[in-house]
Every structure is written in structure tokens, then in C-alpha cells.
Amino acid sequence: MRWSLWKCLATSCFLLGCLLLSALGASAAPAKPAQARTIVLPKMAHVRLRYGAERLQAALQAAGYKVSITEQDKASGKSNQILIGRATDALLTQAATAYHATPGQAPGKEGFTITSADKNTVLISGTDNSGVLYGCLELAEQVKAQGKIGEKLSLKEQPEMVMRGACIGIQKPYYLPGRTVYEYPYTPEVFPWLYDKALWVKYLDMLADNRMNSLYLWNGHPFASLVRLKDYPYAVEVDDATFKKNEEMYRFLTEEADKRGIWVIQMFYNIIVSKPFAEHHNIKTQDRARPIVPLIADYTRKSIAAFVEKYPNVGLMVALGEAMEGVGQDDVDWFNKTIIPGVLDGLKASGQTELPPIVLRAHDTDAPRVINAALPLYKNLYTEAKFNGEALTTYTPRGSWAELHRTLSGMNSVHIENVHILANLEPFRYGSADFIQKSVQAMHSIYGANGLHLYPQASYWDWPYTADKAPERLLQIDRDWMWYKAWSRYAWKADRPRPAEVSYWGRELGQLFGTDEAAGKQVLEAYEQAGEIEPKLLRRYGITDGNRQTLTLGMLMGQLINPKRYGLFTLLYESEAPEGEMIIEYAEKEAKGQKHIGETPPQVADEVQAHGKAAVAAIERAAPSVTKNQAEFARVKNDMYCQAVLADFYAEKVRAALQVLRYKYSKNVTDLEAAVPALERSVQHWQKMVDLTKDTYLYANSMQTAQRKIPMRGVDATYITWAEMLPVYQRELTNLRHSIDSLKAVKALPASQKLVVLRNAPVTLLTKAGTYSVVAGQAVFADTTAQITALAPELAGLKGVRLSANQQRKNGTELRFTTTKPVQVLVGYFNQKSPRYLPAPQLEIDATANDYGQADVKIANGLVVAGQPPVNVHAYTFKAGTHTLNLSRGACLILGFVDASQPLPAYNAGLGSSGEQAKEIDWLFQ
């Protein structure tokens, strides 16, 4: 009995002790010892292996492992190790045997294998140093996702695209005083972020995490900020203290990039020289019509050589066009006799043997011709061309643009697809994984390309900040993380099954906003519905694929009903859109009762409105479960509403435009009256846009110079907000109503018939040339008998300058004159693309195409010369003084000088080659 009593007492004490321990809580229990892992590197490991090991160590420690890093020549046979190295390193070859690992067939360039082996050991084997790095990052990601090292690992990966990179513009939304486009010296005052090492590390880590291997820095003429030349010491653009900072920062950047397997590729334009160099030699910093001269060629070659010698692990990207007259032998000579020799000079001087990449930008040059001539001289060549121009419009490109890409892809160099500017997307967030994946697939299947060059999704000119109005400026790499992650994910591997991708992005977005995967999928659905809106709008209604148009600021009625007046860039419709019809084509077919083809304007109006409604519904379904990053979610949600309202605005305005064009053919005023309600609704939608953006965005477009032309000219940061555009759209509605009233009054004349008489301005012509009166029957060239047969009445009696057409075609046009007051020079461009004729100013290829206000057509089809295409009239504005107007090669007309204060009519005179007139109806809104 005593024993039973004692046993009962002992049991009670034991239970009491358990209760006491339970009361103390789980924290009193002894902690589980951390699992130990040793990361083993080869001795004297490359910096990329060290960086990869450190990133893997950090991930393991965050998961609760105790981790050390060591270096060994050979495998020790110990347990709990992670051995990393190239497949050919002795450490890895011995480890495979010692731990009975079967790595299998080796992957290709930058590839890796991750293999579980005996003794709780993992082998990360790379084809090269970058492959090892990517293997470390992959295992680190798995540990982060799973909270531990997985069992029975067996993974082999390699990238599909050879070059995968992003770019940063070392440029600004505005011009610096005394300078023009692209001219931005590297200084702390202009680019404080350039000297922020922590920001660079964050950005480079992002590139590495996304497996990107190149970083492009865009600038017009960077060399004068980074090198000092013995023969041209005066060319340096910065003071000594800044020069030293630039040297230190550039070395830091290139070394940190090399750790992460990233080539820094410095982009530059040709032919631009530094401002001090230009002033020393009394020349312009850039002049598109300037021929190659020995002085500039020598300066450029020596600048490149000094740059290559001074900064290893740096490549070059060359834009032959834009600041140098386009296609021709000059491009071939400049690339092969100046650029490549400069690189080779720098390599020889430094003793480097690895050829840095040289990327030839296909913009405004005959890239196949240039590359064919260059391949015998240099082996590490790449070509680059814009995927959808300077926008994102389609994942089914076609036509002549697709043929150019296929030609470049078929040459003995790697072709890179440039996702450029994204002028139709900014400033709103873009996260359509579906559209992006299909675009990368098209890069392979339609273009045959094998590289990616990715621009920021928005605010390119305002790096590193976004346009969001927030308590502190948001960084692009934070806000647009999904943009970078999606493009790079599919550049690594494009053909990933769609259901799995929906789940992947659902988890990523769910984690970001503290929701489950289902709610994350709703956020993805919102992104993907909204992601169809701006591409469809631009490809059916736009004027250009270039950054001279800000799609999200809307379009004028005149731009919708008469796009040719605004320099319509037809490649947008012919190559960067599915087969379909422009608004003016659709209206003409309707009037003639003809069958429609492909994607039509009314179809897109209906579709974008449906996408907008679906995007808003999806984001609202996700909203109740958001528990993290609520401020960012609110901004995403607002973006969905903005894009839905943008779709409504365009849809209603296009419906109004189609009614207006119906009137063009019917001359029935009731057709115009039917346009009024739709135009009213579009203005109401625009008011909603103003309300949604006034407290959430600083601006719509980050390029805030005269290059911005559509919907309004954006000089000195004007017309960059939605509120600025509201009165413009309200005025259009008012003008339409007034025009309808005028048409109902029998004796009233439309505005297009009110003649503006242009008067000659007194100038002193310094160029030796004859003059003529701009009237019918007058010969316009000094070396032909071609005469004026028809002209717009405004031009009658102006004093034209008679030049030699052959000399214009051979040498270009130089017009020197003196004036005591500001004047406009009226230049006539033949409306046909041909080497015989001077190309009209085109901002898509020439960033200086509006330096004198010349980009817009003033009088379209305003004059006819016998045997020639109709002539469009442009105006160049000059201040008082002595000037030289240099124009590139090709015949054109100098139609006279008028006072700069003289208002010029802007309309289509409609004179065809036969002299017959077909009136446009833009006047309805003026």
C-alpha cells in the first residue's frame, strides 16, 4: 500500500511539473539546434562564385541554417556540404566521384546543374562562372520559398537568350542650358543618383536575381565625362573633382557588375562631340547633315580606345543613325574605320584578349550592310532593333519590320530585341505576364532573335523615379518589379505552360499583398485585362509608335480623322499591329459599302471597354483580402480605374470620329449631329481621368521637350498632365457645336475657306542662288524645267529660292541668310519616300527633327510640280541674325521667308499629282 501511495504521489508530482512547464510556455523549451552547412568553393574562386556563395549563405541563414564558407582544392568527403564550382574544376569532378553524384549531360553557356549526393551533400556545377552563380541563386530561391534545402535535388537549366539586359538612360526630361537632345555630362548636380553606391548595388542585385547579364547605359557622348585624351585635353566636359568621382564610380560599377555576371554596355550616338570640343573647333556638337571629317573621326576613335583601355568588362552600343545622316556608305565607313579600330586600339593598349561586345543599333541605318562589312574585322558583334518601335502594341509583328529582324537574326551575329521607351504605357503600371510571355515567344518564333534589351516600363527620362505622386518618390525598380521579373523570366525560358504561370504569378502577387494565391490571381487578371488596352488603342488609332505621342494624354479629333497631317508613321499599322483598318480606312469603306478586313476601330472600341470593366472587377475582388502593402495596392487599383476610363474616353471619341467621317462623304449635317453625344461622353470620361490622376501622378510623360507632339506639343514641361488637356477637349466639343450651327446657316463659309495671305519677309540671301515667284508656270529648280502646276492660295506670290536638284541630291541643301527680325523659312517636301527626295522631318529616327519647329506639316499637299509627287509645306523658325539651314541629301523646295509672327494655316489643301483638290474636314474642330 505504501508503494501504491508513493507511486500515486510521484505521478501527481510529474503531472504538476508538466502543467508548470506548460504554463511557462513553449519558449521555455530548449531551442532546436540549427542545421549546419558548409559551402565549399574552389581555391582562388572567381568573384562570381564568391558572390553566389554569399547570396546562398544569406538565404540559408534566413531559413535557420548555420552556414560557413570555405575554399578547398579537392573534395574532403565530409557531410552536410554544398560544393560549388565549374564542371571542369577539380573540386567538382572529385566531388562527383566521392559523393556518387550523377550530374548528367552538361548544360550550355551560363547553364548549371544542382544535384543531391551522398552524405547530405549538394553539388552546384556550372558550365562557366556565370552558370555557377545562377545555380547558387536558384538554390537560394528554393530555400527562401520552401524554408529548407529540398531533398533529391536534380535540376539542369540554361538560358534560351544569349544576351538578357536592361537599360538606364543617363539623360533627363529636359535639355540642359546651351545643349540639345542627348547631351548630358555625368555630374553630381544633374545625376545625383549616379553616385549612389547603395542604389547601384540594389539595382545590380535585381538584375542578377532576374538572371540578366547586361546593363546598357544610354547617353549621347559619355566619353568626355570618363576619359581624358592626350591629343584633345580640352574635350573633357567636367571639372577635375567630378572627373575623379566619375572614374571611381565607373570602376565601382563595372567591378560590381562583373561579380554578378553582368556586362556594362555603354551606348552612344554618332556623330556627337563634346561641347568644349565643338566650341574649340567652332563646330556643332551634332549635325545630322555633317559628313565624316578626319578631325571628328580621329577624336571619336581615340575616345573609344581610351575608354576600352581604361574600363575592362565594358562593351559598347553604337547608334549610327539619328545624329548622323541615315542609311549610306558613311555608316559602313564610320563603324568599320572608326568604331571597331578604336576598340581594337584600346584592347591592344591594355593587353586584353577578351573581345568586349559591340552592339550595332539598327535604328536609322542599313544594319545588314554594316554588319556584313564588319564581321571579318570583329567577331563579338550583336545587332539590336526595336520590338514594337517605341511602344508595346502586339505579340504578332509582321510585314517589313519583321523581315528586317529575321534578316538580322539570320546573320553571323546575335540579334537582340529592344523593348523600347513604351510611350503608350507610361505612366501606369503594366503587369500582363501573358502579353509579355507571348511577346518573348514572338521574338523567337517570328523574329528569330536570341537576346533581350529591356527599357524601364515608364519614366525612362526620369530615372530612377516613377511619376507617382507619393510622400517620397517611388523607385522604378521597386514599383515595376513585375515588369523586370516577367521579361527576364521568359527570356530565360519562354515556353512555360500557361496554367502553371498563372499559379506562379498568383503566388508572387499574393505574397506581395498578403493574400492567398486565389486573390493574387485576381490581381494578375486585372493586370492582364488592363494590359490589352494601351496596345490595342495605339495600334488602331495612333499616329506613331514613337515617343512623340503620349497615348495616355488622349488624341485630338483632327488626329483621329486626318492622321496623315500629323506625320502618320505607317509602320505602326503595317508591321506592329495585326491586319486591320485605320479609322479613315474604315470610314471610307463604310461610305463605299466595301467589306472590312481584320481588326476594326469599332471592334477595338468595344474590346477595350470590356477589358477595362474586367480589370476593375478583378481588382475589386482581390481588395478585401489585402493585408500587406496597402498603399501600393491602392495605387495599383487606381491604375486599373485610370486605364478603364482611358478606354472609355477613346471608345467614345472614336465613335464620334466615325460619325464625323460619315459626314465627310455624305455632307449630311445630321451625321455630324450624331457625333455630338459620343464626343460629350468622351469629355465626361476625361473629367474622370483628371479626378483619378490629380492627386496620384506628377505627369503622364517623362520626356517633356519639343519632341512630344501628340496630342499637344510639350515644350518646357507643358501639356504633361490630364488636367491641362481637359480644356482642349472641351474646346473641341464647343467648336464642333459651333461648326454645326455654321453649316446650318446657308451663307456661312467654313473656316477652311478663310484665306490667310502669307507675305514675304525681307532677308538677305547669302547663298548664291536665283529666286522665283511661287505661282503656276514657274520653274522651281535651276537645272530642270519642272514647273508649278497647282498651289494652295496662301503660297501665291512668295519668293522661292531656285536651287539645283542634282546638287541637293548629291550634297544636301545649304541655305545661308541674314535677317533683322525672326522669320520662318517655308520648305517644301515631296510627299514620296525615295532617295531622290529629301525625307521629311521624322522624330521617330531624328531627335533633332523639331529643333526649329519644323516637324509638323503646315499645308499638306499644298503644291504640285509637274512630274513630281505633291509637296507638303513645313516651317523652320529662326531668330534675328545670320543663319545656315543645313538639310540632308535629297531634292526639296525653298518656298520663301515669312515673318515669324505670321500665323500659318495648318490644313490639307488636298492637291494631288493631277492638281485636283480633295478637302479635309479638320476645320470642324478649329
Automatic annotation (TrEMBL):
Record carries keyword Cell wall biogenesis/degradation: no
Biological process, per Gene Ontology: carbohydrate metabolic process
Alphabetized GO MF terms: hydrolase activity
Keywords of this entry: Hydrolase, Signal
InterPro entries: Hex-like_dom2
Gene3D superfamilies linked to this entry: Chitobiase/beta-hexosaminidase domain 2-like (3.30.379.10)
Signal sequence coordinates: 1-28
Coiled-coil spans in chain: none
Domain of life: Bacteria
Full protein name: Beta-hexosaminidase bacterial type N-terminal domain-containing protein
Upper taxonomic lineage: Bacteria, Pseudomonadati, Bacteroidota, Cytophagia, Cytophagales
